[in-house]
Request: fold
Amino acid sequence: MTRHSGRGFACINYPIGMNLGGDPAQALVHSTPDGKFMVTLSAIDLGQGMKSVTRQIAAEALGVPLADVYVDTADSDTGPHDMGSFASRGTHRVGNAVIRAASEARAQMMEAAAEELEVSAQDLDTDGAGNIHVKGAPSRQITVADTAIAAQFKQGRTLSGRGIFLIEPSGVDPDTGEMSPVTTYAHAALIVDLDVDDETGEVEVTQINSAYEVGRALNPKLVEQQLIGGAWMGVSHALYETTEPYYPDRRHGPEDFNTYLMPGPGEIVPHDIAVLERPAADAPYGGKGPGEMCANPVLPAVANAVYNAVGVRVDKLPITPEKILRGIRANGGARPGPRRPGV
Reply:
């Protein structure tokens, strides 16, 4: 028995969202009587942190504390239209819609504050701590809460805004049909190190190193955790997850998550991440979000690492021990790939 070490590389150029029908996202923002703000969406948080990021975006656009903003994604019947939580579109599409809605609500808030302070709305600014003050004269101020109270109980105003974001239709080459399906792309490069046992065919991932370009990391800790979790999801797809051998017939196959084969948290390996920030011009505060790109490059990197380790090219997922052993036997034994000095 010999354990062979292998290293695999993969890179990705990933489209954010899509162009079909403009890929619309909509958001509503309104103030409660005590100066808090509610963001209403039909986009759903699947665990990727979209509610946290849109909350941050709304607070920034409104100029109010993060603690004073809430996000409601409870019901697509009562929320504005959204295409859905797919295609890594949440931060870009929904974030842009939230900025538009929050900016409109902020304009209403500043008009209400201007009426109370007897100045022009253009002469006012927010401090991000819950106050609105006259530029150059911070002592002349009113709280956001008092502004909301005055607007709703004295002035008869609604502090609210609507936001819609659409992608401009792409031109189509009449001869070739060529077009641009999206307006921006994210990028990543990833290296997987692993060991392959030539007697059992078992694969053990030992380390992952990656670099992701995400526009701007609006919430760095969320980005880091999504990249780590997404990479391990990619490892699971590459090595474990399957409905074989008789799909769609469920005999001898997994019926629930107790019998479904996948790695657990204790098997997560060290993962060194470099997050590269290149703010996108059409993204909310430059952020594109990592999305599905977290997992995608891991699969070819694992396949390349197995080939580098034992010389077996597996082209159908998952890369099971059985497939590796068949490949080793067909090759007449393990044939590790070339190594660079020091690797």
Remarks:
- The chain has a mean pLDDT of 90.
